[in-house]
Design goal:
This protein has eleven helices and six strands. It has 221 residues and is of the alpha/beta class. It has two domains: 130 residues, Response regulator (Rossmann fold, 3-Layer(aba) Sandwich); 65 residues, Orthogonal Bundle (Arc Repressor Mutant, subunit A). A six-stranded parallel sheet has the order 2-1-3-4-5-6, sandwiched between helices. Strand 5, helix 6 and strand 6 form a beta-alpha-beta unit. Helix 4 runs parallel beside helix 5. The radius of gyration is 18 Å and the shape is globular.
Length: 221
């Protein structure tokens, strides 16, 4: 009973049956996960979210009836305890930005493997953000384009401590909080505190915003 309660309940949302079947086949052997339900569009996902109360919704972006962006926004508004992980084919920055703005905690491409998908599910459930490498690359490319189009950066740089710069550099290099803690010989709780300070000082809302800030202020090396 207890082990069953600890399982992560998932709702799989995709308009293609073959894709849903593939995700289910990929995850059903993981003893920590349980597939609570499936939906073929965002409207159905919203209804099932209220009925099934999943821990994480794995959400496609482009779907008929109701798209994943709208569905994510409504699910997060009505059921803020439910986390949403985008799993889609597109790494277009507009889709990434819209899903993050709608409340998605992560953005993963469909060419990802089981290990990365499970990692993303756990990170999002824990309240962290997760972006696949290609998604981060798309964000960085866009930021670099904007940077080159503007010779000067607006505003004065926000003073960061040396330790905050160290943590920011490792965040940009995709280290997890536990890896950063190990590398800098500090506790994970201290890393969390530095991350919160970085978000507050830079005005960033998430990891993508910190990456943008680091690039614009030449701290990404």
């Amino acid at each position: 009973m207890n082990s069953e309660e600890k399982k992560i309940k998932l709702l799989i949302v995709d308009d293609h049956q073959i894709v849903r079947d593939g995700i289910v086949a990929l995850l059903q052997s993981d003893q920590n996960l349980v597939i609570a339900g499936e939906a073929r569009n965002g409207k159905m996902a919203l209804e099932l979210a209220g009925e099934l109360h999943p821990d994480v919704v794995i959400m496609d972006v482009s779907m008929p009836v109701m798209d994943g962006i709208t569905s994510t926004r409504l699910i997060r508004e009505k059921y803020p305890e439910i986390k949403v992980l985008a799993l889609t084919m597109t790494n277009e920055l507009e889709h990434i930005k819209n899903m993050i703005d709608a409340g998605a905690g992560g953005y993963l491409l469909k060419n990802s493997g089981k290990e990365e998908l499970v990692t993303a599910i756990n990170e999002v459930l824990a309240g962290h953000e997760y972006f696949s490498g290609e998604v981060k690359d798309a964000i960085v490319r866009e930021m670099m384009k904007k940077k080159s189009a503007n010779d000067r950066l607006a505003g004065e740089p926000i003073p960061l401590t040396l330790r905050e710069k160290d943590v920011l550099s490792l965040i940009v290099r995709e280290f997890t909080n536990s890896e950063i803690a190990e590398k800098l010989f500090i506790s994970v709780r201290t890393v969390d505190a530095h991350r919160r300070n970085l978000l507050e000082k830079t005005g960033a809302r998430n990891t993508a915003g910190l990456v943008k800030y680091a690039i614009e202020n030449h701290l990404a090396e």
